[in-house]
Specification:
The chain is of the alpha+beta class. The strands form 2 sheets. Strands 3-4-8-5-7-6 form a 6-stranded mixed β-barrel. Helices cover about 30% and strands about 15% of the residues. The chain starts with about 90 loop residues before the first strand and ends with a helix. The longest helix has 18 residues. Helix 8 runs parallel beside helix 11. The protein has 13 helices and 12 strands.
């Protein structure tokens, strides 16, 4: 049985306890029980949008070059606008010039908008795009499907930017940031820019359209506003390369509630696709975001928790990814409840800060080990489990999980969930 370092005085994390009594282990103190507010319930469907305007092309088109990132569909907007103006972009005049800006540098603009802090990450499992607004009744039906935890409906459409068609979503930045890849979700400055009615694009769009942060560009929809680029980051959604604020989207005529994101942990995404397709009916594209072609974003890194668990497990010979997935479910419901517990544990894998100092991992290579970032926290959990013998299986695995949270009921719960993951996905 592998023993943790002598300096350790407590578990990695207090589990999200069920109230069952932990087993007596004299040498180890028991963790404080966590009490959390319930999270992860399906969000209320958005209010019904106004009547959709006529499309540029009837329905949803499956286009060979639907977007700059090679998406497989286009959510089409309202009435055709005039072609995008040619020529250089107009520099946005900031309220106060940045002291560090040199001659010819892009202007750093003020953010101008407030967003709520990131409290959880919601991995999208399914994306559905309709040929018109999806009704509130259908959104409610999707939210009530078995095992569905979160649903988000957004406006969207195809606009012209720099003379190219780009698929855009109009979103509430405080709510939508949770649905993007973790590194993008935590970039508060990006979401503040969006709240200030600037636009955000994928890195592919920024490069291919030669966009510069801080400059204005005409965006052609039903109207043609000049919008300032607020930044870029991987959006994690196939075919979607641009985000605008709900205000800007409304002015440009983006179709209300044209797309729905669905999160349903612990159930086959293919089954969710089938169920959502049945609710929405013909004329709707329903994508399984767990298919291999959708599983990377920005630099080829994994975009889903499932991938992160599988990748992290490879760092510990003999450790099954299903154990990491089970711990991630018990501790934070895969990032939905990653805030500080009453015991002081933090992040998607609920590390105690002192333990994180010893076992934290810079999994995404950004130069720091971030307790709140699943790219770091999940391999950190694998490192800790491995140090306590998890890779040897049997009693050693049991002991390693017990070290994660000193309670036999917790170990049994994790191991039973791991078996359930193996039965479903292996």
């Amino acid at each position: 049985m592998a023993s943790p370092p002598a300096s350790r005085t407590g578990p990695v994390a207090g589990g999200s306890g069920d109230g069952e009594a932990p087993a007596a282990r004299p040498p180890r103190p028991r963790p404080e029980k966590k009490r959390r507010d319930p999270r992860g319930a399906a969000s209320a469907p958005p209010r019904r949008g106004r009547r959709a305007l006529p499309f540029l092309i009837g329905g949803i088109a499956v286009l060979a070059i639907a977007s700059t990132s090679g998406g497989v569909y286009a959510a089409l907007t309202a009435e055709k606008g005039e072609p995008a103006a040619s020529g250089p972009p107009q520099a946005d005049q900031p309220p106060s010039a940045g002291a560090g800006a040199g001659a010819g540098d892009p202007v750093n603009v003020a953010t101008g908008g407030q967003v709520a802090p990131l409290r959880r990450v919601v991995p999208p499992d399914v994306l559905a795009v309709g040929g018109a607004s999806i009704s509130a009744a259908k959104i409610k039906r999707i939210a009530k499907l078995p095992r569905v935890k979160d649903v988000s409906a957004v406006a969207g459409g195809a606009v012209q930017l720099q003379g190219r068609q780009v698929n855009a979503f109009a979103v509430d930045p405080s709510a939508f940031r949770s649905w993007t890849p973790p590194d993008t979700a935590k970039k508060t400055e990006l979401w503040e820019a969006l709240a200030g009615n600037r636009f955000v694009v994928s890195p592919a769009a920024a490069e291919q359209l030669q966009l510069t942060k801080g400059y204005q560009y005409p965006v052609v929809g039903r109207t043609m506003p000049n919008l300032t680029m607020g930044g870029s980051g991987p959006l994690g959604l196939p075919g979607i390369d641009m985000l605008v604020s709900e205000k800007s989207g409304g002015e440009m005529g983006l179709v209300p509630n044209v797309a729905v994101l669905v999160n349903a942990p612990g159930v086959s995404p293919a089954k969710v696709v089938k169920a959502v397709g049945k609710v929405l009916g013909p004329g709707t594209n329903v994508l399984n975001l767990h298919e291999n072609k959708y599983q990377s974003s920005g630099g080829g890194r994994s975009a889903s928790y499932l991938d992160l668990y599988k990748k992290a497990a490879t760092t510990c010979q003999g450790l099954s990814w299903t154990v990491l997935a089970a711990i991630g479910q018990v501790e934070s419901d895969h990032g939905r409840n990653a805030g500080r517990s009453s015991a002081g544990a933090l992040g998607p894998m609920q590390f105690m800060p002192a333990t994180w100092k010893a076992y934290g991992v810079d999994g995404d290579g950004d130069g720091k080990a971030d307790i709140m970032n699943p790219y770091d926290a999940i391999p950190g959990a694998a490192k800790y489990l491995c140090a306590n013998g998890a890779g040897r299986g049997g009693k050693q695995l049991y002991n390693a999980v017990w070290h994660y949270n000193h309670a036999d009921w917790y170990v049994q719960k994790v191991l039973n969930l791991a078996k359930a993951y193996a039965a479903r996905y292996e």
